[in-house]
Design brief:
Blueprint lengths: L3 E7 L4 H14 L4 E6 L16 E4 L8 H6 L3 H19 L4 E5 L3 E3 L4 H5 L6 E3 L10 H14 L6 E5 L2 H17 L2 E2 L4 E2 L2 H4 L2 H4 L3 E3 L7 E2 L8 E3 L5 E3 L2 E2 L2 E3 L6 H5 L5 H16 L2 H4 L17 H9 L1 H6 L6 H9 L1 H7 L1 H27 L3 H22 L9 H12 L32 E7 L3 H12 L6 E7 L6 H9 L6 E5 L5 H9 L6 E4 L5 E2 L3 H11 L5 E9 L5 E5 L23 E3 H6 L12 H11 L4 E12 L7 H19 L5 H30 L1
Parallel strand pairs: 1-2, 1-4, 2-3, 6-10, 11-15, 16-17, 16-19, 17-18, 21-24
Antiparallel strand pairs: 4-7, 5-15, 6-7, 8-9, 12-13, 13-14, 19-23, 20-24, 21-22, 21-23
């Protein structure tokens, strides 16, 4: 093999993936020189002598001009991508190498790379397309081919370059574009570095577009690549040896949706997950990049990054945007900065133009109309009707004609808010909810319920009582406490003796809510499972209702119900009346409107998805869980009953927590759609659901009024 160097780029939370890449590469090329480009601070525990990497290059080593402003402008994904060209330039100028090959950290090598590298003997640039053949199914065309038009034709999880004048010319161009225009902005025509590479075959000579089916195999191209064989002997792709597999999780739904998985692909994923665990995935995946925080420890909002890179004056006056000074300035000037942004100005201009056009049309109509007086009378009548409706219904506004404005109008008026929907009132629970189940415990399925707890003594007694006082005989209730420093333990011990047959209190250190839930469930064996947060409550009779529903609907794997919103004084402040579960619009891929405190599922389903909560999530772990359930083929029903109450209180979320939540939701949407959709795209896809929810809520109110009458 010629003198070939390899490199990858990642942050510390992706280090386990990079380790698997390094280990698999060294298996076939033990003398191959592998560079790790680390877009993060170097961990104290990181020891290069014990790693399969030969060299570590930090962002500071790349001599990027105005480094701090440049770093601040990029999200983590953008950052790890933006350094690829500059890192290639650095390696080719600093090390004696004939060829340089980049692999994404989530790639693994399964056979020698000689044939791959031989492609560079007669070419200077080697790239691979996402797909090798056209799709045949209409929906797959939309999900794959149209996505490639939006995000790029070539898969930049791999690129190879020969160290020639032509190869270096390409690297210089690539580095420049990545430094200045490596952002996720599909409306502007950018998707990190991937869209730029679409121009390479036109701009440079010596470009080899390799169509070997064994290169860059991934979940989204399994529709035209047939994997067979096993890891012990050999895995083949369309009859050719599998060279390297791209284990990106961004489109897991594709092979499952089109039944593309087989024993070989399942074995590959199982092998990869085991390798990640051995490489420290459980610990390192929870880390957050150093460059995600201001120097004072506050999380950097995406809005701050976008405003900083869009308004040149702001960058000029703040050479260190990570500083406490800029953080305070940003908070105090946030509204002003929004009004200076390109998007805000563009939107204002569009609004002004639309208003001007409407005014011109109105003037022309007034001047040319023969029925001016009749029109004036009609306008007065319409205005009076509108004012009457507005005063009586409150939410009525002028419905705009523009479709986009209509979508936003519907969303703003019908969205399911968690904020108070009305003034606090006494919690209303139907008398029928208090009826006890008459079946014996031997006939009832065991329900395993876990409450993760930490410093919630103020609310946890209400939570515990709401569960135990239902007197469900076949209950297994675990309170998994992370060594609370308040009087949580004292509260729980009041109930341990009376309910010793169904209540257990585990007080051990955990690493967060997801870890606590996993620890609790590991101590259970019930047929039906659920978790209830330590500030939420179950409504009376819910456990008996859930058990009865599962017994009468053996085909159902998961259920959830309506939600009541309560405040810190157990006063009702709102209700979520949800339509029946019809995921015909794939709504779950866009937003999570499943109330977690009302969700129950069968243990068989839990085992099917690996029997664990993804502990890397802090906010969206319930949305991630139900997506995994859905992707595993779960039959899901929304039951026509209020099962739980969600408590909203001031100590619930901080600004940083909300920001992490937004990032996690974007992460899940990226997995579902292979890109992060805009707010307007999300609104367009969920409005039908919101309209159905609105109709159901009106019917609910009508039913209550009729019952009282």
């Amino acid at each position: 093999m010629s003198n070939t160097h390899f490199y990858t780029s990642c942050t510390n939370n992706y280090l386990p993936l990079a380790r698997v890449l390094a280990k698999s590469l060294k298996k076939f090329h033990p003398t191959g020189y592998l560079h790790l480009v680390l877009c993060d601070s170097v961990l104290e525990s990181f020891d290069l002598d014990k790693e399969d990497f030969d060299n570590v290059i930090t962002v500071e080593d790349l001599a990027i001009p105005n480094l701090k402003p440049w770093l601040f402008k990029h999200s983590v994904i953008e950052l790890c991508t933006a350094v690829k060209g500059t890192a290639a330039k650095h390696i080719m100028s600093s090390y004696d190498c004939d060829n340089l090959i980049y692999f994404d950290p989530d790639v693994a090598v399964f056979s020698p790379l000689e044939d791959l590298i031989n492609n560079l003997e007669n070419s200077d640039i080697l790239i691979t397309p996402h797909q090798l053949r056209p799709e045949k199914i209409f929906s797959a065309i939309a999900e794959n081919e149209i996505s490639f038009l939006r995000h790029g034709t070539y898969n930049l999880g791999f690129v190879g370059v020969k160290n020639t004048s032509n190869g270096r010319e390409f690297v210089d161009w690539w580095a420049d574009r990545c430094l200045n225009f490596c952002y996720t902005d599909t409306e502007y025509g950018l998707y990190t570095d991937q869209r730029w590479i679409d121009l390479v075959p036109a701009f440079f000579n010596g470009v080899n577009i390799s169509k070997n089916p064994g290169y860059n195999v991934a979940n989204w191209n399994l529709s035209n690549r047939d994997l067979q064989g096993n890891l012990e002997e050999q895995v083949t792709v369309n009859g050719e040896p599998l060279c390297f597999y791209h284990f990106s999780g961004s489109q897991k739904i594709m092979p499952e949706k089109y039944n593309l998985h087989n024993e070989t692909t399942n074995a590959l994923w199982a092998w990869y997950q085991a390798q990640l665990e051995a490489a420290g995935q459980a610990e390192l995946s929870k880390l957050v990049c150093t460059y995600n925080f201001f120097e004072n420890g506050e999380l950097i909002p995406n809005q701050a990054r976008e405003l900083y890179r869009q308004v040149q004056e702001v960058e000029d006056k703040n050479p260190n945007p990570f500083s406490e000074e800029f953080y305070r300035w940003y908070l105090s000037h946030k509204q002003y900065l929004e009004q200076q942004s390109v998007d805000f100005i563009k939107k204002s201009l569009e609004t002004n133009q639309e208003d001007l056009a409407k005014c011109q049309e109105l003037v022309e109509a007034m001047e040319s109309s023969k029925f001016w007086k009749l029109r004036q009378g009609w306008i007065k009548t319409k205005t009076k009707i509108r004012q009457t409706l507005k005063s009586r219904l409150g939410w009525v506004r002028r419905i705009p004609k523009n479709k986009t404005e209509v979508d936003v109008w519907i969303y703003n008026r019908l969205k399911l808010d968690i904020v108070p929907q009305y003034s606090p009132r006494k919690l209303e629970i139907p008398e029928s909810y208090y009826q006890e189940n008459q079946q014996s415990s031997s006939d009832l399925p065991k329900i395993s319920l876990v409450t993760p707890s930490y410093n919630q003594a103020h609310f946890i007694e209400d939570t515990v009582k709401s569960v135990l006082e239902q007197n469900y005989p076949n209950l297994q209730y675990i309170i998994q406490d992370g060594k609370s420093k308040d009087n949580t333990a004292e509260v729980i011990h009041k109930y341990l003796e009376q309910y010793s047959d169904r209540l257990k209190f585990n007080c051990t250190q955990d690493s967060g809510q997801g870890n606590a839930i996993n620890l609790g469930f590991a101590d259970t064996d019930g047929e039906i499972m659920a978790w209830l947060n330590s500030d939420d409550v179950l409504l009376p009779g819910s456990l008996a209702y859930v058990a009865d529903y599962f017994q009468n609907h053996p085909e159902v794997d998961l259920i959830y119900g309506h939600r009541i919103i309560i405040d810190e004084h157990n006063q009702e402040t709102g209700r979520w009346i949800l339509p029946s579960h019809e995921d015909r619009d794939n709504m779950l891929s866009w937003i999570d409107y499943v109330p977690q405190e009302t969700m129950f599922w069968r243990r068989e389903l839990w085992q099917k998805i690996g029997a664990n909560i993804d502990e890397s999530f802090r906010f969206a772990l319930d949305w991630d869980l139900i997506l995994r359930f859905r992707d595993a083929g779960a039959v899901i029903h929304r039951v026509p009953r209020f099962l739980g109450a969600f408590r909203v209180h001031q100590q619930q979320k901080t600004q940083a927590w909300n920001e992490i939540g937004m990032q996690e939701m974007d992460r899940l949407r990226l997995q579902q759609h292979n890109y992060v959709p805009t707010n307007l795209e999300i609104i367009k896809h969920i409005n039908r659901y919101l309209i159905r929810s609105f109709i159901f809520s009106r019917l609910h109110i009508l039913n209550k009024v009729t019952a009282r009458t």
